[in-house]
Amino acid sequence: MSGRTVLRITGDTPRRRGEDRGRRAGDAIARAWRVYDELFTTVGGRAPDVRSLALRTADATRAWAPELVEEMEGVAEGAGLPFWTIAALNARTEILAEAGAPRAGECSTLVRTGPLTTGGQCWDWHEELAGSWHLQTVTGDAHGFAGITEHGILAKIGVNEAGVGVLFNILGHTGDAATGVPVHLVARQVLGNAGSFAEAVGMLTGAPVSASTVITVVTADRAASVELAPAGSAVVVPDERGWLTRTNHFLDPSLAAGELRGRREPETYDRHRLLSRRVRAHPGPLGPDALAALLSAHREDGAEVCCHAPAGGALGSRWATLATLAVDPAERRLLVHDGGPCTAGPSTWTPLTAPAR
Known about the structure:
Elements: E1 6-9, H1 14-42, H2 50-64, H3 66-79, H4 83-90, H5 92-99, E2 108-112, E3 118-126, E4 133-138, E5 145-150, E6 157-160, E7 165-170, H6 183-193, H7 197-205, E8 213-218, E9 223-229, E10 232-236, E11 243-246, H8 253-256, H9 261-264, H10 267-280, H11 288-295, E12 319-328, E13 333-338, E14 350-353
Parallel strand pairs: 1-4
Antiparallel strand pairs: 2-3, 2-11, 3-12, 4-5, 5-6, 6-7, 7-8, 8-9, 9-10, 12-13, 13-14
Helix pairs in contact: 1-3, 1-5, 2-3, 2-4, 3-4, 6-7
């Protein structure tokens, strides 16, 4: 089991929940911010005005869900950091998109629907941020939820007490910018407020985002991937055998017309093809150990689903699978393995159950 920090965030208002997070993780948030500050300014083809972009996304969020801005303000107060740095952390996807940062890695997701729908994913990110994430439970909103996130970011991957789970893959579209609601805050809104599959999908398709992602909604009996982009949204349903296989490119034809990530880094298609072949040959349920086995693929297998950072290299080039996650929405439970799927085993999973509100 992981020795990773579990933050148990409470508070009867968004600001109090934010203050609780900031007080509990202030030093860790400051360390994560220093890495991101360097990442924003050293990767990509353009040097962004991070403060202005962060505040612009905060304005968009305030117009859509002002309670999320109140929560970020609380984090800043609790951590003793300027508000714009917390806004920048939560908008890290949008700011990196604006900077034109390359993404020579990223996440892979598998979901199987049926009598008992389950799923999970690799979370791939920069090795320098391997110490900058934590497990969490959050109460005080419409629904309590459990999951993982990065220090200072309100939410990422998780499941709530209503049995609504979210999995997360970044996409890339030619229209991506840092003008709308950050995708991590959209995930936070779903986890804290969606009481059903339909509510989750409705929140996602109505979110005014400006950078692309696919958030896969998983409940006990249903699942779908909601592709979000500045050009619009699309709902992608499981195939005829009940499988959803996601990497980092659009599957909806209309949104795929603006595909950016796949054109720059076509390895996303290699991962998708390899995983699609594997699930076709997998007859059984998708428990955590089966998930890890399916995701355990390296370059010699034809695609690097499980990423290992090289020994050297500059910030922005050292991708690694930081965590492997399995979601069981019927049990309102997330299982977390600290590291890539090739090192997962029956005793390495840390269970998190969504708390009651």
